[in-house]
Amino acid sequence: MEALQQSLAETLAGSLGPSGSSGNVANYMGQMAMAMGKLGTLENFLRQADNLRQQTLHQMQRILTIRQAARALLAIHDYFSRLRALSSLWLARPRE
C-alpha cells in the first residue's frame, strides 16, 4: 500500500506542473481527493480479501485431509512467491 501511495503522489505531483496557478492547484486537489477515495476503497477491499483468506485457512483443517491440506499450502506458497516476484518487477520497472 505504501508503494501505491508513493506512486500516486509522484504521478499527481508530475501532473501539477511548474506553473502552480490557482486553477491547476484546484484541479490537483480534486484529483488528489478522488485518488485518495479510490485508494481507501482499494484498501478496504484488500482487508476484506485478507479476512476471507484467513477464514479459509482456518476452515481448511475441517474440510481437507492432511495430504490435501499440505498440497494446498504448497500451492499457496508457490502463488505468493510468484506474486512477490511480480511485485518486485513492477516496482523496478522504468518510469517515464
Automatic annotation (TrEMBL):
One of the record's GO cellular component terms: nucleus
Q: Name one GO biological process term.
A: DNA-templated transcription
The subcellular location is:
Nucleus
Phosphoprotein among keywords: no
Q: What is its main location?
A: nucleus
Organism domain of life: Eukaryota
Q: Which GO terms describe its molecular function?
A: sequence-specific DNA binding
Where in the numbering of this chain does the DOG1 domain appear?
1-93
Q: Which UniProt keywords apply?
A: DNA-binding, Nucleus, Transcription, Transcription regulation
**PROSITE patterns recorded for this chain?**
DOG1 (PS51806)
The stretch of residues making up the signal peptide is none
Q: What is this protein called?
A: DOG1 domain-containing protein
